[in-house]
Amino acid sequence: MNSSGNISMDRIKSISSAGGLGKTKVRSLNSFVGLRTITVAFFIFLYAPILVLVVLSFNAGDSTATWSGFGLQAYRTLAADGALRQAAGNSLIVACFATIGSTLVATLAAIALHGRRGAMEQITGSAITFPLLVPEIVTAVATLLALSVLAIPLGLATIMFAHTVFCLPFAFLPVKARLADMDGRLLDAAADLYATPFRAFRAVTLPLMVPGIVAGAMLAFITSIDNFVITYFVAGAGYTTLPVYIYGVVKVGVSPEINAISTVLLAVSVSLVTLSYFVGKLRRI
């Protein structure tokens, strides 16, 4: 310990390399009483409601609080609900458009910014990811204001445009990270083999980018299909998506059908996130 009462890093390293001082040991976080209990309680509080929701979606009765046995009545009711099918169709159309649009723009932006260290490139990259730091309600209000100033009528097209912009950073970051991990010597090797820039991109860069592109597309799809705030502000009359439909039904009361819808969305989200994780870890070369 130095004169100021602080422990220097050099001193810690020297003591560690020498085997420590006597039998003095630093306590591990696992040794603190109650830490494990708090952690378990936190996860129970976080995931127990989701588990209850999934179980009650298979309730044979009409009550959301009393278990009446296993059944698929809620899912049959969903399949026969025309308004729900329309909302689900709108959500799917919007999510697919937003996924394709945001992934295409994000991929082109990541390629354009890759390997550049100028101030303009840094500003551009920060501008693309900045929406992640802005509260979603602010983005929704700003988008609605812009549409109003431009006198653009609200409808399905405005939802698709707003979702594409909002999903852009989610699609951009995996592609950017993938390019950052790429070994530049591969392009040098392709140049040594007299490959043109386009051929080197097609044979080297693009295959390495594919896992990042797919992962970004999946994240964009998940972000779009369950988005409520932005959709609620920019949707026109008669253009209801699934989250907005759920919100309207929940205002009347929670029913087994709502549990079933939520379970389906949960299954889709978990599946895509899991697939995105494994795709992002792929190594083509």
UniProtKB/TrEMBL annotation:
Mind listing the GO biological process terms from this record? transmembrane transport
List localization entries.
Cell inner membrane; Cell membrane
Membrane topology note: Multi-pass membrane protein
**GO cellular component term of the entry, any:** plasma membrane
Q: Which InterPro entries match?
A: Bact_Polyamine_Transport (IPR051789), MetI-like (IPR000515), MetI-like_sf (IPR035906)
Pfam families linked to this entry = BPD_transp_1 (PF00528)
Query: What are the ABC transmembrane type-1 domain coordinates in residue numbering?
Result: 88-276
Asked whether the UniProt record includes Signal among its keywords, one would answer no
The transmembrane residues are 33-58, 92-115, 127-150, 156-175, 203-222, 228-248, 260-279
UniProt-listed PROSITE patterns:
ABC_TM1
Q: Which UniProt keywords apply?
A: Cell inner membrane, Cell membrane, Membrane, Transmembrane, Transmembrane helix, Transport
Q: What is stated as this protein's family in its record?
A: Belongs to the binding-protein-dependent transport system permease family. CysTW subfamily.
Function of the protein = Required for the activity of the bacterial periplasmic transport system of putrescine and spermidine.
Q: Which PANTHER family match?
A: PUTRESCINE TRANSPORT SYSTEM PERMEASE PROTEIN POTI (PTHR43848), SPERMIDINE_PUTRESCINE TRANSPORT SYSTEM PERMEASE PROTEIN POTC (PTHR43848:SF5)
Q: What is this protein called?
A: Spermidine/putrescine transport system permease protein PotC
The top of its lineage is: Bacteria, Pseudomonadati, Pseudomonadota, Betaproteobacteria, Burkholderiales
